[in-house]
Design goal:
Two copies of one chain form a homodimer. Chain A is mainly β. The first copy, chain A, is built from six helices and 35 strands. Chains A, B: Its EC number is 1.10.3.3.
Amino acid sequence: MAAIVWWLITVVVVVVHSASARPIVLNWEVKYKFRWPDCKEGVVMAINDQFPGPTINAVSGDTVIIYLTNKLSTEGVVIHWHGIRQNGTPWADGAAGVTQCAISPGETYTYNFTVDKPGTHFYHGHYGMQRSAGLYGMMIVRSPEERLRYDGEFNLLLSDWWHQSVHAQELALSSKPMRWIGEPQSLLINGRGQFNCSQAAYFSEGGGLRQCTFKENDECAPETLRVEPNKVYRLRIASTTNLASLNLAVEGHKLEVVEADGNYVAPFTVDDIDIYSGETYSVLLRTHSFSSKKHFISVGVRGRKPNTTQALTILNYADASDSDRPTNPPPVTPRWDDYYRSKSFSKKIFAAEGYTPPPKKSDDQLILLNTQNLIDGYTKWAINNVSLSVPVTPYLGSIRYGLNKHELKSPAKRFVKDYDILKPPVNPNTVKGTGLYTFPSGIVVDVILQNANVLKGKNSEIHPWHLHGHDFWVLGYGEGRFRPGVDEKTYNLRNPPLRNTVALYPFGWTALRFVTDNPGVWFFHCHIEPHLGMGMGVVFAEGVDQILKMDIPDEALTCGSTMKLLMNRGRR
Amino acid sequence: MAAIVWWLITVVVVVVHSASARPIVLNWEVKYKFRWPDCKEGVVMAINDQFPGPTINAVSGDTVIIYLTNKLSTEGVVIHWHGIRQNGTPWADGAAGVTQCAISPGETYTYNFTVDKPGTHFYHGHYGMQRSAGLYGMMIVRSPEERLRYDGEFNLLLSDWWHQSVHAQELALSSKPMRWIGEPQSLLINGRGQFNCSQAAYFSEGGGLRQCTFKENDECAPETLRVEPNKVYRLRIASTTNLASLNLAVEGHKLEVVEADGNYVAPFTVDDIDIYSGETYSVLLRTHSFSSKKHFISVGVRGRKPNTTQALTILNYADASDSDRPTNPPPVTPRWDDYYRSKSFSKKIFAAEGYTPPPKKSDDQLILLNTQNLIDGYTKWAINNVSLSVPVTPYLGSIRYGLNKHELKSPAKRFVKDYDILKPPVNPNTVKGTGLYTFPSGIVVDVILQNANVLKGKNSEIHPWHLHGHDFWVLGYGEGRFRPGVDEKTYNLRNPPLRNTVALYPFGWTALRFVTDNPGVWFFHCHIEPHLGMGMGVVFAEGVDQILKMDIPDEALTCGSTMKLLMNRGRR
């Protein structure tokens, strides 16, 4: 067997300068490149020829200026800065059709925003299925007052990977009848996976695959985590999967969860963590006192019947020799449909001490029923019977300039009373729409996400919902149908965690609360890219009176009716 | 064997109304669709769900108004009306980056133009490799004074087809080192071919493929040409191939060539015709007096070493029964590298009687050397050492508004004297550029296209050059290096054919002449899509003083610096 070459992740030295707002100026170009993400050649979206894109390292308070140039041949592009609240700069949020027009080929858009909050964040494409195509990277915002103590850190950006092009996948999903894209061919850790071999084939757990051998500079060779004994390491983990819900474990080591979505949580220790698309975690890993060898880190699929091999990388103690292999097999990913286990992980997460609790009462309440639907034979997802169809003109521009009022409609605030969430739905009234809810500034909004049965058979899927522009408190999870006036009493109002992404579990509900303190237009959607593409999202407009006064850069609105309006200014 | 189902091409009834300018108003939507163009499923660009796109049937003098809506998810789109001169409407020519900005997803662009000249034309995408993706269709402009007499007609739109997506192909071609896309998997006649079987397998000429059997409504079943005995049929043939030079023959029948690129030619009779990408022909076919059976129509590759099965369809006499098969095998395509034969076909083409001969002298002369080059390791094609890089702002807009003067540069009018066209080139000075030549109105311009050896080995390829906005006279073809002051004397100034596309043969030259009577900006380029993508083109700006007065619709210029200018009008 050829020698396995292990690749080192640079351990970021945790030194943080003072919180003065320095500008971080980046010139980025987006292009397609041929790469071997999982030891099979494919086409990825790269930034400055890098896949995944470059890691942004910032300090809270920094101004980040990214000149993003679209070097694609025929496609538009945007980048969303996932976890950054964009206070005062909603046009920098990077959601195509919501906060800006897609950047056309050859054009440069300036993302200029402040990273006000420390935490583990990431960024990704938010147009078509460009996230699934590989347009993503880590974004670490450090705090000058870091309260965690650790000796080194590693970034683990998790994703899933298909061999079919995203263009063909997108067409498949939007065809009549819909063609499902299936489970991913591979899971990637920092853009690296192995489709046709296993690093653990020498155990029976290898699944019948051959043992991987890597050549120098192999793009699919895993990045190894090189550690010293008796130290504490922070693993910053983010999931930008297209579809997969994941579970991560480090063989022979416990994980202490300390951060979720950029917020400290009351530390708790587990053997493994669940992580849904759109979530980030920091976990602390204490290395053994004995300088022992190598251990597998495994990432496997949960929440859907898996058909994808675990992604593996190695925790590599300093004195392990290159030829050593882990002596224990990779951790087994917990059973995919053990939802009790999934929920009990979620329910362990509470805000760390020092966080202000949420307001005791809400001023408004949405109860959003998630249903799978058929509209004219096309498979769609809908929220309160409206399947989101993002309009040509970005909401932010339409609202700023008072355009398209006829098409910007609100779905109902609650779903119909007699809807049976346990049965396959009958939804003759489901329509496509713009799914816009409008809120005044400074109020407290509760959103209850309500899951239901899918179109066929007895089944309900996990949906990780992500809110742009905000953190929200996760007030609670429940089984079955939400009972207004009753289930509110079960809310945790003492120490609920602040997050920007939360899972909605099968046949259950999830309640969250936020304050409309960020004027702008914010996407709120299932972070599973095909679900969003099939309409599973809504849009929150907040503080419209302040949006009307915003000086939105013209370059954000070079499409649709805002373009026509701006071009005609000089003619009137 | 299952019964073969033959599909009928509707015989268009040749009845033409008077030449009053009626408007033809079309609402078109461009989308990707799954189709089976060659009996293997692939993704095509469809117009109103049709592939190939709908045939436009117009009468000379008609106004055609097409509201083209981009229903793609993330890609821009344009359509070029190949053979239409766009006199007075250069912004309707549909060349992305030259005469307009690409139409963004969700937007509608209005193509509004007059079809001033009768003839066999077509239309196709002109952005990235969208033509190769299947964005094309026929455009027939009839004359109220048709001088040809025939009993029926058929359209044969020829194309080539790859199984790899055009996105991956485009990336391959623009990679370093360049990856060649190879020969097409199939040739298509009206969007139908057979990759994995042959209609002629029952002859030894079937090439070892199995006999095709077609089910009802098979998208890859050939359209059969149903004819009566003792009649004259007009075959309107257009080639929109990405790469392939083609040869078409009808077994047992002669072809009388009567039209080329929308101009009548002095009729001549041949066994088969060569047709290059961008060309159109009409040929008259006289059916036999005996009502005899079926005959193969074959389309094969010439000019490149073929690796693609002939496309076949059937000339089907009225009383042939469904179960009859052609008794003779398909015509054999002439040897691919018999360039003497290719040139002798081209040299048979003269203008029909009644055409005005070209002006006797020219006012300006370009000698354009076609070379294959390396720029920083990227394979490019260059004209007089400039490899075309189409700018973000369309030329038409830049010139109209006096923008980007620094980047709009002219290559040399002639190539360096000591360039050896017979040897692999050494071109250290090749650069990317905008390749813009500017001419005043009302002058006579000669262009000599000069071929040369490619980068490696002893080889020179055929390049079919297409000029937008004009027909030109083909004054002559020559071998080797053009000798200024000498070879002009060999020009045919008596009855050269008028065309918009002409072949440049290996190691030779081709001379053409046109009059700058159409103010606008006109693309002039090799019609092989990968060659154009690698820089093989120039741009002619004509009558700049008149462009400066043009009322170009804003919607043509919603990109680059024209967009910024138009948006800022109101702010100044």
